[in-house]
Amino acid sequence: MTVIAKALQAPEWISSGATITGGLDLLGLRLPVQTIGGTLLDGVTTVTPSVRYLAFRAWLIHRYGQRGGADSWQTFTEFASRVESALVLGNLIEDPSIGGLIGSDQALERLAFGNTQVQLSSLVKSPASTIYTGPSDQLGISKSRGNWVPALVMERGLPLAKAVDQRLTTAPLIERLIFDDDLGAASVDDLRELGSKVRIDQIPDEERELLLAAIMPSAPRPTERNRIRTYAALLAMAAQQRSAPNEGKFFDAACSPDRFGEPLVDQVADGWVTYCVRDAIAVTQEGVLAAVMSEVLGQPDGGLSGVERRVVIEALMERVEEHDSALRDLNLLSSGESVADLTFRALEERLRLRLFVAGAAPGVMRWPDSLVEPLLYRRALKSGAGALTLTVVAWVMAAIRVGNAVREDKQEFRSLSHQGRRRQGLREVVLPELERFRREDRPLRDVVAEMAVRTVQQHLQITWSRLQVDLRRDVALLTAEGNKWFARRKGFVAGRTASRIQQALGWLHQLKLIDANGITADGAVVLQSVLATLAEGDTA
Predict the structure, then answer these.
(1) Which of 375, 421, 426 is nearest to 400 (CA)?
(2) Less Cβ around it within 10 Å: N or C end of the chain?
(3) Cβ neighbourhood burial of 135 (10 Å; 0-12, 13-18, 19+)
(4) Model-level pTM greater than 0.70?
(5) What is the DSSP-derived secondary structure letter of residue 298?
């Protein structure tokens, strides 16, 4: 049976009496991915689908200041929630199919009653004025002031607020919403008129130009250049493909030797490759955790009385065909071979020979082979027990791709080791452990089994650290006592880190820069303008 390093002994679980809750990043390995993504594409999040909300939020700040309200964040959000409710209700009266509205489900329920008067109380716990705070601040539209009312930035925020105000001044309901704190309901007719003036899916030209000036400014701050390059890359892809890009094609291009095919934006591709490197590590290990949980929960009593970890790992390793299939699909194993016959060093050698590039420049390694990180993590999500073997592949590929840059401690690659050992940093964990595997040259099965134990240990460490912050929050999927793992009645499905690329593409559609046929005429103009901005900055 597989020998597991004694260093990977997880401490026994101590019951805290906490309530078991759900969580997404249950290995804590998505955080480095998100950190890298935040440096490459700020100003948008996975919960900000509608770009026009940025304009509405600027207008709300402006009008709240005009009404002379208290300088209090809570008072401002209470005011904003009521006005936002009216905007959402008005939009849905105009067109019930409109998407991207915050609180639309609750709004449709209110409208379904068919009353002539509709309540305006808040539709959600977190209004758009809260959800869009980060993007608005990062785009230089607003500036947060702690517990006080946010301020508008004169250059970008105030013109945007005034552009919205011009469209709303003729709506009678607006003045009552702004100044009448006791207004608890509005007529369907008034809400319909309001919705016709400020549809979330129809952005007037003036607002559109001002939003573009914030998202892709002609005089960007240094921290905005990666965002501009990322949007330019998406526009360039739309122009080349003559179709709308998608997230998968974006990452495939970023990892390819040709990158995005536009020299002025290609340098951001290296950043997105590091994103994919860390995401491949996170996804494959989430696949391991999912495989472990399937075995534990698959016990006759659902794993409640505990299962020896040796039994779990043996069961996973006996699913040889899943391991073989995972490597075979990546052309790392021939039809007559089995993962059971390989050593770690043999697998590493296959990867290095296949991905070797003579005379490669320092930094991110690029190879013409189709074996890239997006292909790896897509396969890992459907590999079952094979994810254990693909975790080793992900680590080796990370070392090939960026190992030299990490060893040289280049600033732009330090996020690969974000929070060091706690997040399995490349410098602190991945590269040293690969050196140990190489030195020991054990059977690949032993290394794979060790990865399974390491993954469970990682999950428990993250769980314990979160309990230290909040004793009421327990996200553990299982517990460890001695050599046994105990289920906690929760399953787990592996997934990917949300990149925000999909939301950025949505914004480009809303701003009429891309459509189903690729880049639009307006998009082509914006792309040329952005490239000129980048060229000027690169030569400055």
Answers:
(1) 426
(2) C
(3) buried
(4) yes
(5) T
How far apart are alpha carbons 540 and 530 in whole angstroms?
Answer: 15
pLDDT at 487 over 60: yes
Q: List all residues 6 or more positions away from 505 whose beta carbon is below 8 Å from its beta carbon.
A: 234, 244, 245, 246, 247, 514
Tokens representing 61 are 């700040």
Separation of alpha carbons 514 and 524, rounded Å: 9
* Span 409-435, average pLDDT: 94
What lies within 8 Å, CB to CB, of 353 at 6+ separation is: none
CA gap 270, 256 in Å, rounded: 10
The CA–CA distances, whole Å, from 7 to 3, 436, 486 equal 12, 13, 21
Residue 17 has pLDDT above 70, yes or no: no
Q: Is the dihedral of CA 256, 262, 263, 264 positive or negative?
A: negative
Give the C-alpha separation, 178 to 66, whole Å: 9
Q: What is the CA radius of gyration of the chain?
A: 26
Token readout for 86 is 């009216």
Q: Is 512 exposed, middle or buried (0-12, 13-18, 19+ CB in 10 A)?
A: middle
**Candidate from 355-369, 381-395, 430-444 with smallest mean pLDDT:** 355-369
Q: Show the tokens assigned to 140.
A: 């230089």
Query: What letter represents residue 34's amino acid?
Result: Q
Q: What distance in Å separates the CA atoms of residue 233 and residue 244, rounded to the nearest whole number? A: 12
| CB distance 253 to 259 below 8 Å | yes
pLDDT greater than 90 at residue 27 = yes
Residue type, 6: K
Per-residue confidence band for 349, with pLDDT thresholds at 50, 70 and 90: very high
- Confidence at residue 540, expressed as pLDDT on a 0 to 100 scale: 52
What pLDDT score was predicted for residue 470? 75
Task: State the Cα–Cα distance between residues 260 and 231, nearest whole angstrom.
Answer: 11
Which of the four pLDDT bands, split at 50, 70 and 90, describes residue 7?
very low
Query: By percentage, how much of the chain surpasses pLDDT 70?
Result: 94
Contact 531, 268 (CB under 8 A): no
User: CB-based contacts of 427: which residues, under 8 Å, 6+ apart?
Assistant: 406, 407, 409, 416, 417, 420
Per DSSP, the residues of 379-444 read: HHTT-GGGHHHHHHHHHHHHHHHHHHHHHTT-GGGGGGGTTGGGGT-IIIIIHHHHHHHHHH--BH
Q: Residue with structure tokens 């000129």?
A: 532
What span, in angstroms and rounded, lies between the C-alpha atoms of 536 and 486?
Answer: 60
Helix axes 263-297, 225-241, angle to 10 degrees: 90
Q: Which helix (H) or strand (E) holds 227?
A: helix 225-241
Quote the CA–CA distance of 309 and 482 in Å, as a whole number: 9
What amino acid is encoded at 123 in this protein?
L
> What 3-state class would DSSP assign to 125?
coil
Q: 514 and 523 in contact (C-beta within 8 Å)?
A: yes
Residue pair 25/121 in contact (Cβ under 8 Å)? The answer is no
Whether 130 contacts 235, CB under 8 Å: no
Q: Work out the end-to-end distance of the chain between its first and last CA atoms, rounded to an integer number of angstroms.
A: 62
Q: How confident is the model at residue 483 (pLDDT cuts 50, 70, 90)?
A: very high
